């Protein structure tokens, strides 16, 4: 949901292999808020260079309307990283997503590399948090550069590195998820939840979307078009939330006129901060409706 700054919708951010021409084409009409054109794990070694060219061409096409378009490069230290980063910077997407970012120093050197490659100002760094080292240092990592815009959880890599398991409810990684949300909020950057791997398990996916929303994530990363609708709905204010927010704002206006600093609405205490939250729900709802009209 929105923060206090202008609302940038990132409810649903869909990965697709940069090597999959059909997916790149299809994404032009999907109601997602963002796209990650992947050059890393979803692309085999033999396709790395052609996927890089296709992803950069897709960014340059300008064919994705209101959606934020990003490129996920191969990680620091791989044979493809430097050429990926230079090509992505030149194409000028909204974000360059870097996997397995480990520390604040690494954030600063990635930003320096983007700047050296001439990336336009709108091209921000999106850092993936998916290693124990990154989670342990996430507060300083998140605050390392004003060019860092988004933290993205990589829950597959994190589970692997922890030697944990994927279980319903995600107990093994809950502490890490919360640490990353805390760091993002403290630094004023956005934060996206990881992917749900079973594209047929609608119930499990719905539960994980709701959990991510309740933990404070701005949205969730996705792997399949069939996950978009549920994700958008979960990370948008519901009708009941909007109705309640209206009631709070109206009651406050009425009671504050009578000079009160605290009131009750349906038996619940309402103070200034609750009114701020209610106004934010209404602003997000208006923004989401405008997006729906935009396609
Ligand atoms: C998971 C998939 C391989 C499934 O592919 P497929 O079996 O082909 O799906 P469907 O037949 O159901 O596809 C139906 C139509 O939808 C299009 N499609 C499918 N996926 C996408 C997509 N991601 N974006 C856009 N369009 C998509 C198909 O082309 C079909 O279209 P049509 O021909 O018109 O019917 C596949 O979904 C897939 O490749 N998903 C993305 C995988 C990916 O990018 N993985 C990397 C990121 S996940 C990760 O690693 C996160 C992190 O690092 C971590 O550690 O957790
Ligand atoms: Mg990963």
The helix/strand class is alpha/beta
Can you identify the CATH class of the largest domain?
Answer: Alpha Beta
Number of helices: 12
Low-confidence stretches: none
- Count of domain modules: 2
What is the overall pLDDT average? 94
Please name the CATH architecture of the largest domain. Answer: Alpha-Beta Barrel
Ligand types: ligand LIB3CWND, magnesium ion
Query: CATH topology of the largest domain, what is it called?
Result: TIM Barrel
InterPro entries: Aldolase/citrate-lyase_domain (IPR005000), Citrate_lyase_beta/mcl1/mcl2 (IPR011206), Pyrv/PenolPyrv_kinase-like_dom (IPR015813), Pyrv_kinase-like_dom_sf (IPR040442)
GO molecular function: lyase activity; magnesium ion binding
Domain HpcH/HpaI aldolase/citrate lyase: 11-225
Protein name: Citrate lyase beta chain
Give the helices and strands, then pairings.
Blueprint: E1 12-17, H1 21-26, E2 34-38, H2 48-61, E3 68-72, H3 81-91, E4 95-98, H4 104-116, E5 124-129, H5 132-136, H6 138-142, E6 148-153, H7 155-162, H8 174-187, E7 190-193, H9 202-215, E8 219-222, H10 228-234, H11 239-257, E9 263-265, E10 268-270, H12 272-294
Parallel strand pairs: 1-2, 1-8, 2-3, 3-4, 4-5, 5-6, 6-7, 7-8
Antiparallel strand pairs: 9-10
Residues 14-17, 22-23, 26-27, 38, 41-42, 99, 130, 154-157, 194-195, 199, 223-225 line the site of ligand LIB3CWND.
């Amino acid at each position: 949901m929105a923060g206090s700054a202008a609302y940038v919708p990132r409810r649903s951010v869909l990965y697709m292999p940069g090597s999959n021409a059909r997916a790149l084409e299809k994404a032009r009409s999907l109601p997602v808020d963002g796209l990650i054109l992947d050059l890393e794990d979803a692309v085999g070694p033999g396709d790395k260079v052609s996927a890089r060219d296709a992803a950069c061409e897709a960014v340059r096409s300008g064919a994705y309307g209101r959606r934020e378009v990003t490129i996920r490069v191969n990680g620091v230290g791989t044979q493809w990283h430097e050429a990926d980063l230079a090509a992505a910077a030149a194409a000028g997407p909204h974000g360059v997503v870097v996997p397995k970012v480990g520390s604040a120093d690494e954030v600063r050197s990635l930003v320096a590399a983007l700047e050296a490659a001439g990336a336009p100002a709108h091209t921000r760094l999106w850092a993936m948090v998916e290693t124990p080292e990154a989670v342990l240092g996430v507060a300083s990592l998140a605050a390392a550069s004003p060019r860092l815009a988004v933290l993205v959880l990589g829950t597959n890599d994190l589970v692997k590195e922890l030697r944990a398991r994927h279980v319903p409810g995600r107990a093994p990684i809950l502490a890490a998820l919360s640490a990353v949300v805390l760091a993002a909020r403290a630094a004023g950057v956005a934060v996206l939840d990881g992917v749900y791997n079973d594209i047929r398990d609608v119930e499990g996916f719905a539960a994980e979307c709701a959990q991510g929303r309740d933990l404070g994530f701005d949205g969730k990363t996705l792997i399949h078009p069939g996950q978009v609708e549920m994700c958008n709905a979960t990370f948008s204010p519901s009708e009941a939330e909007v109705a309640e927010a209206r009631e709070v704002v109206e009651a406050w206006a009425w009671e504050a006129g009578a000079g009160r600093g605290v009131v009750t609405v349906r038996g619940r205490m309402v103070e200034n901060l609750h009114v701020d939250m209610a106004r934010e729900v209404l602003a997000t709802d208006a923004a989401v409706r405008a997006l729906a009209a935009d396609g």
